[in-house]
Amino acid sequence: MSFTLRPWRPDDLASLVSYANNPEIARFMTDQFPHPFTEEKGRGFISMATSHSPQRIFAIEVDGQAAGGIGLHPQTDVQCKNAELGYWLAQPFWGRGIITEAIREVVDYGFQTFDITRIFARPYGTNIGSRRALEKAGFVLEGQFEKTLFKNGEFLDELVYAVRRRG
């Protein structure tokens, strides 16, 4: 299944809210990703996602609509050579290889665009699909921290996966 990475647009609001307002998406995200995901939250997200130059946060367009998002978050201070990768994909498109390929594209973009040497992601231990996608995209598990995160009333393991600039 093909997809396109592109900047978010105001006319993505309806599909963003429709797909993001799903407890199965929210359970794998930080609490900054709200549930319920309202139009107000969607407008705020699109505004934030389009405010960076160079572009850092992209819509994942599938079948002509924004069906997910992926972005890099460059770090500061002593972590300034790192960027955190975050992403989500609408549930109807899970298991089709879309997020793995989107991760590969954003990693290439990140190393070409930003002065960084490492891109990392921190999936929950329970997010098997995300872990597999990262591994298929060349990320290596660097660390596992048992029961350090608290989400929806339960403690979860925090995993740290990373890929480093080659050469």
TrEMBL record:
InterPro entries per the UniProt record, alphabetical: Acyl_CoA_acyltransferase, GNAT_dom
TM ranges: none
Would the keyword Transferase be found if you checked this record's keyword annotation? yes
**Is the keyword Transferase in the record?**
yes
GO molecular function list: acyltransferase activity, transferring groups other than amino-acyl groups
Domain (N-acetyltransferase) ranges = 3-166
Keywords from UniProt, A to Z, are: Transferase
Name any one Pfam family assigned in the record.
Acetyltransf_3
Q: PANTHER family attached here?
A: ACETYLTRANSFERASE-RELATED, N-ACETYLTRANSFERASE DOMAIN-CONTAINING PROTEIN
Q: What is this protein called?
A: N-acetyltransferase
Organism of provenance: Hymenobacter aquaticus
Taxonomic path: Bacteria, Pseudomonadati, Bacteroidota, Cytophagia, Cytophagales
